[in-house]
Amino acid sequence: MTVSAVVVSHGHVRELERSLPALAPQVDELVVVANVPGSVGEVPPGTRVLAAPRPRTFAANVNAGATVTTGTYVLVANPDAIPEPDAVARLAAFAESRPRCGVAGPQLRWPDGSWQPSRRRFPTVAGTLVRRTPLRLLRPPYEHQRAHYHLDERPEEPVPADWLLGAFLLQRRAMLEELGGWDAGYRHYVEDIDLCYRAARAGWERWYVPAAVVHHAYAAVIDRRFLSRHTLWHARGMLRFVRKHPERLLALR
Question: What torsion do the CA atoms of 159, 163, 166, 172 make, to the nearest 10 degrees?
Fold first, then answer.
């Protein structure tokens, strides 16, 4: 069993200075994809830096990084995700124990150590409209959509998940190859939901493994502003998602 890590950087030099030294000792291969010039500074020994020929979507860069690696598992990590020393080993050991585990995600924590809701239900149209429009001022999602975020659950043992935030995901290479990788048509958001949804339809399990802990400075830009390029990217991503999976238009949970 080997683990290959892929980190995509879009000018995240400072974040990589903290995350790569924590990640490198835990994996067998480490590839950093520089989406734009100047995205990568000094890296740990043995790290391969892959320069994108032109700016690409996050998913396209993940696929490019995965293609040049050989591990049994492909770990996709954000530049601002800092794993605790045994996080990758715990994820890989759990995945090895379940042959149909295609995706395993850790417990994410904010930099101050508090819990971050990373295990979520697949989105519905109604729920998304509330979360991504001014309606959320009338019905705050963390109060009225607690089930979506699993806010009332703090499991101490691994539990199944619909999908998990793409900040730090261990994926079985066999699953990625079967699915054809990440969908590069997503600009920046929803690609992690799409990956987990396609995995579910293909019979691959997705698991939340709380014993693996990763600290993540989640920007949550679209949770703070109603109209920005990020909210437009997210809207385009959700439109792509429902075009690909129209049955979700009728989903109630």
Answer: 70
Query: Is 0.90 topped by the overall pTM?
Result: yes
Q: Specify whether the CB–CB gap between 209 and 98 falls below 8 A.
A: no
Helix ranges restricted to H, the chain: 13-23, 58-67, 87-97, 125-131, 135-138, 141-144, 146-149, 173-179, 191-201, 221-224, 229-244
Give 78-135 as a DSSP string. Answer: -TTEEE-TTHHHHHHHHHHH-TTEEEEEEEEE-TTS-EE--EEPPP-HHHHHHHTSTH
DSSP 26: G
pLDDT tens track for 100-120: 999 999 999 999 999 999 999
Separation between Cα atoms, residue 220 and residue 211, nearest integer Å: 24
